[in-house]
Specification:
By secondary structure, the protein is α/β, with parallel strands linked by helices. It has 13 helices and eleven strands. Bound molecules: 6-O-phosphono-beta-D-fructofuranose.
């Protein structure tokens, strides 16, 4: 390891996109793993924006003391459009040269990984770590922040259930997840929701309302309906109004949990996954690798080519044309098709379980 170490003397670490609990744990792990291997660490502030503007601070082992337990990101975050431009990219590369940054660990979602690929292409080896509460990075079973966000949803909705039971009400709760309904689906199961609306599965509003009506006749007093943000703007409010119209003798209330889901001290799972992934990301840079994303598959930490991961994500989210898909290698097409089929089947299975529980 010592010989290879000569190549990587300094690395940068950044967090980008929507923040997620556990990002700090990942920053700490990257820092300590690097320092343990004699590598200096530059904290890049405000995501890719800090790379453009040269907002860099050196981190030693003590600089990351006590951040393991903190929500948010001590490096701050940003969604930086300038980074996508040629001019922005050139500035970022100059900053890397100035600070002698030999490699970067970028923590965030798919936008972050697109940036990581651009940097790798320009000769700055970059490794991605998935960090987003939405858990919507297709290539990984798990992204840092998901568990904490879901625990927040559970804590908040449990409180809503208390008051809904007292007043025999229905609460329609919108949870985050712009492109994916994982928080709604898994959180919904954990709170015992009567209905879960996610865009990945057909949602029959009338059937859901009938279920409420039947359960009321069977002495059930309170109802929780979880709606994923991905169902569209005002979908949850409109559905709340529809329930009120169709069941006029029951009060129905709407609640949006919004950014409260993004904060808070990370759970054990997020601290652990972030630490293991941070460790692995630095190991990969030391091994001379680049343009990879650290993922969780079959409960194991693996690394995948970022471009493969981005294509898989696009294919899964129907953001890739058939022509673009056909241009990929046959083995990539095969493995993606298999993976996507499996992922969809898992979601369908969870959805069926949630329905069986909500009688
Ligand atoms: O990507 C995480 C996420 O929290 C999404 O669930 C949500 O749609 C979005 O970020 C909100 O973004 P912003 O913080 O820019 O309002």
């Amino acid at each position: 390891m010592d010989e290879i170490n000569k190549k990587i003397r300094r690395i940068g670490v950044l967090t980008s996109g929507g923040d997620a609990p556990g990002m700090n744990a990942a920053v700490r792990a990257v820092t300590r793993m690097a320092i343990s291997n004699g590598i200096r660490v530059m904290g890049i502030l405000k995501g890719y924006r800090g790379l453009i503007d040269g907002e860099i601070v050196e981190y030693d082992a003590r600089a990351v003391s006590n951040i393991l337990t903190l929500g948010g990101t001590v490096l701050y975050s940003d969604r930086c459009d300038e980074f996508k431009t040629e001019k922005g990219m050139k500035k970022a590369c100059r900053t890397c040269q100035k600070y002698e940054i030999d490699g970067i660990v970028a923590i965030g979602g798919d936008g972050t990984f697109r940036g990581a690929t651009d940097l790798s292409r320009r000769g700055i080896p970059t490794i991605g770590i998935p960090g987003t509460i939405d858990n919507d990075i297709t290539a990984t079973e798990y992204s840092i922040g998901f568990d904490t966000a879901m625990n927040t949803v559970v804590a908040m909705v449990d409180r809503l259930r208390d008051t809904s039971e007292s007043h025999a009400r229905c609460s329609v709760v919108e949870v985050m997840g712009r492109d994916a309904g994982h928080i709604a689906l898994q959180g919904g199961i954990a709170v015992g929701a009567t209905g879960i609306a996610i865009k990945e599965m057909p949602f029959d509003e009338d059937e859901c309302i009938n279920r409420i009506i039947h359960a009321r006749m069977n002495r059930k007093r309170n109802f929780i309906i979880i709606v994923s943000e991905g169902m569209g703007t005002n979908y949850a409010e409109n559905f709340t109004a529809k329930i009120s119209r169709q069941i006029p003798d029951m009060e129905t209330r709407f609640a949006r949990l919004a950014h409260v889901q993004r904060g808070g001290s990370p759970t054990l799972r997020d601290r652990l996954v972030a630490t293991v992934m941070g460790n692995r990301a630095v190991e990969l840079l030391i091994e001379g690798k680049k343009n990879l994303v650290v993922c969780m598959q079959n409960s194991k930490v693996v690394d995948l080519d970022i471009e493969y991961a981005l294509n898989l994500d696009k294919r899964y989210k129907n953001k890739m044309t058939d022509e673009q898909f056909a241009a990929l290698s046959e083995s990539d097409q095969k493995s993606m098709t298999k993976f996507i089929k499996q992922k969809k089947a898992e979601i369908a299975e969870f959805y069926q379980i949630s329905k069986r529980m909500s009688i």
